[in-house]
Design goal:
Order of helices and strands: EHEHEHEHEEHEHEHH
Helix content: 25-40%
Strand content: 15-25%
Radius of gyration: 16 Å
Number of helices: 8
Bound molecules: D-xylitol-5-phosphate, zinc ion
Catalytic activity: D-ribulose 5-phosphate = D-xylulose 5-phosphate
Keywords: Carbohydrate metabolism, Iron, Isomerase, Manganese, Metal-binding, Zinc
CATH architecture: Alpha-Beta Barrel
Protein name: Ribulose-phosphate 3-epimerase
Structural class: alpha/beta
EC number: 5.1.3.1
Strand order of the largest sheet: 1-8-7-6-5-4-3-2
Enzyme class: isomerase
CATH superfamily: Aldolase class I
Number of strands: 8
């Protein structure tokens, strides 16, 4: 079976008590955390910028997966990422729906110049064919299992077909991307996602709204 990574999404963390949220992740042996950046343009919600991430990074040693749900102006593209890059994320994910082909190439170059994993996300209604042009360069593909924008929504099971297809493509063509899923994850939906071929599981409300964080993390692994 594939190695499973659980990445808690800090969108559902208690921001008045981030120190404790970091502690809960450490106690559960979390290696990766998922950081959702939203702009009230690409999605109808606004979250945090690079300062909060910088503070998290300065008091922990997690690998950082930044999930950008933003529309960035072409001429400000390089600039936009600069403060996040200083936080040394391991991976940066942008939505294919938010960029032109030219911008996707710019994003790829920014990732590679800075030694950051290049990752693209697809929303539930987006056909994964849009990834074809970058499939051999991608180091991760994020399949959204809810419409991006909010935590606490219900899992859309139809997206599992995309996961199965990507897992199959990977096997037959030797592609090296990992497959990540985000949205509506709990112990039941994580099982379905793992069976379909997912390697990285993002969970927000299921973990942070629970008193027993460690137990909930374990319940997502199905090993
Ligand atoms: C939603 C975000 C998710 C969110 C998931 O657009 O990308 O990362 O935090 O939250 P849950 O796990 O509660 O669906
Ligand atoms: Zn996310």
């Amino acid at each position: 079976m594939q190695k499973i990574t659980i990445a808690p999404s800090f969108l559902s963390a208690n921001f008045a008590d981030l120190k404790n949220e970091i502690k809960r992740c450490k106690e559960a042996n979390i290696e990766w955390i998922h950081y959702d950046v939203m702009d009230y343009d690409f999605v109808p919600n606004l979250t945090f910028g690079s300062k909060v991430l910088k503070d998290i990074v300065n008091s922990s040693d997690f690998k950082i997966d930044i999930h950008f749900m933003v529309k960035v102006k072409t001429k400000r593209f390089e600039d936009f990422f600069s403060e996040y890059i200083k936080c040394k994320p391991t991976m940066m994910t942008m939505h294919v729906e938010s960029m032109s082909k030219k911008e996707i190439n710019m994003f790829y170059n920014i990732c590679k110049t800075n030694n950051i994993m290049f990752s693209l996300a697809v929303s539930p209604k987006t056909n994964i064919k849009v990834l074809n042009k970058w499939i051999d360069k991608l180091e991760n593909i994020l399949i959204m299992s809810v419409e991006p924008g909010f935590g606490g929504q219900s899992f859309i099971p139809e997206v599992l077909e995309k996961v199965k297809h990507l897992a199959e493509l990977k096997k037959t063509n030797g592609y090296t991307y990992s497959i990540e899923i985000d949205g509506g994850i709990n112990d039941e939906t994580s099982k379905k996602a793992i069976d379909a071929g997912v390697e990285m599981i993002v969970a927000g409300s299921y973990l942070f709204e629970s008193k027993n964080f460690l137990e909930k993390v374990e319940s997502l692994k199905h090993d």
